[in-house]
Amino acid sequence: MKLPRRALLLAPLLALSGETQAQPKPLVVPLSWYVVQVEDNAFTVEMPGVPDHRVLGDRSARGTPFALHSYSLDAGGFAYVAQTALYPGDVDVSQPRAILQVALNDRAQQLETRKWSRVDWRQVPRATAAVESIGPVRGGEALRQLIALQGRRFVSIALLGNAAGLNANEGERFFKSLKLA
Question: pTM for the complete prediction?
Fold first, then answer.
């Protein structure tokens, strides 16, 4: 009695196996999201994988060196980047919007049109100023970024990829996950 039952269970599988071999489907592995805690616990953000961490040397306008911590990851057709730096004492942070405008202008030079398509000054909890922007990059891609200042702390997250996907589920999850310390 066990044999006929087993045969009935295997028959549909054997019948389907020819079809699946004739029309193979690509394996789609869902992205695994991780909370990334950046240098000095300045903020956390979720990324769909474990990013590379690099420390880049930068200098203030007066020449004082400081470290820019950059966390980057390519996943699902997008490049995810989170960066932070603690500005040295010779950087005047009394006008945070002006500092962020300089950062916007500098990054606009990477855009195809050298101008942002959209710029939204917004409130981010614990930030003294914040701005989100989107702009076109060559090849039909776009850059979406959020930059903020929290005292002397510079915070930036950015997503580069297909313009239509920047506001899709993964993009929204990335941007909404930002938590300043």
Answer: 0.82
